[in-house]
Design goal:
It is built from ten helices and 14 strands. By secondary structure, the protein is an alpha+beta fold. About 2% of the residues have low confidence.
Length: 324
């Protein structure tokens, strides 16, 4: 009996779940097409916790087809390339287990949730089978995001939720996350993720709300701390308006003045303020604020070729003016 056959014995039929045999490496076009209609396990955690790679607003724009799929970040590409090595290492560490890479996409048609599990496993000491989500964090990412205050290894919340969604869609009785490190030799840990039904229920509710908002074209609010680049990339300055009565805009300008003097320690908040101002002034080129000054917004084209990842940027300035 092959490992695949051994695992298939334990796999229950999950009502509403469809299985598509598609290899993301060999047929990425088909895989991406399947994923577009669902909140996948690598995406949906952003709806209930902070995600390393995507915000709720970015997910909305992605599903609308206005953003490229963020699955192809350099860190994630590295993870894909290292995955076969991690599987071999797990086989060495757990010689009595049976492992199988499904190369399949699972989706719940009505919930519009999907998952591409990295690995199925059978542990002789546990009932059923499990899913293992393999990650390949770099040295600094591992130290800052995978170690708790006591120095113990813990999976980041969004990755644990990813494993839960994969277990739920495949019928796995247990789930684990395996951070595989290659910076100083080879090292791997297996972190169990309890099947928490309350978390799964909340996740399903949030995904349902997301798709309702999607159909109503009601996007999630911007996260000004993290969505600044998204806001800036969409901004086209062309209007001149008088916003003298907008107290929030005036207060943002004043806070920006204060923070600019100590910019090295206030970069993040300055970026948030810029994002808030741009949202408050959609496609505006100039706006007069309460103290008579003028907010000037200009898109600066790239000065070098080849262009950087972002081809241009927004230059926001507050110009002097007499008080009213």
């Amino acid at each position: 009996m092959t490992h695949e056959q051994a695992i298939e014995r334990f796999r229950p039929i999950i009502p509403g779940v469809e299985e598509f045999h598609v290899d993301p490496e060999r047929d990425p076009k088909s895989w991406h097409a399947l994923r577009m209609d669902d909140a996948t396990a690598s995406q949906s955690p952003c709806l209930i916790c902070e995600h390393d790679y995507i915000t709720p607003r970015e997910l909305f724009e992605l599903k609308k087809g206005r953003l490229p799929d963020p699955e192809e970040t350099p860190a994630m590409l590295r993870g894909k390339l290292m995955e076969p090595v991690a599987v071999r290492y797990l086989c060495k560490e757990y010689p009595t287990w049976k492992f199988f890479q499904p190369s399949a996409y699972f989706r719940h048609k009505t919930r519009r949730m999907g998952a591409t599990p990295d690995l199925f496993a059978v542990d002789p000491e546990r009932e059923g089978f499990g899913i293992i989500q393999i990650k390949n964090p770099g040295y600094w990412a591992f130290r800052s995001k995978w170690l708790n205050s006591a120095g113990a290894i813990e999976a980041p919340t969004w990755i644990a939720i990813q494993a839960l969604q994969e277990a739920d869609l495949t019928g796995a009785s247990w789930a684990a996350v395996a951070p595989f490190r290659t910076d100083n030799g080879l090292d791997i840990d297996l972190i169990d993720v309890p099947i928490h039904r309350g978390v799964l229920s909340k996740l399903q509710d949030e995904v349902a709300d997301f798709w309702h908002r999607f159909e109503m074209d009601d996007p999630p609010p911007f996260d000004y701390r993290r969505d600044g680049d998204l806001i800036e990339d969409r901004f086209v300055p062309k209007h001149i308006v008088d916003m003298s009565d907008d107290k929030v805009l005036y207060e943002l300008a004043l806070e920006r003045d204060v923070l600019s003097s100590g910019k090295s320690s206030a970069e993040k908040r300055l970026k948030e303020i810029k994002a808030q101002i741009l949202v408050r002034l959609p496609n505006v080129n100039k706006a007069r604020i309460a103290d008579g000054r003028v907010i000037s917004i200009t898109r600066i084209p790239p000065k070098t070729i080849p262009a950087t990842e972002r081809s241009s940027y927004i230059d926001l300035r507050i110009l002097a003016g007499g008080k009213k």
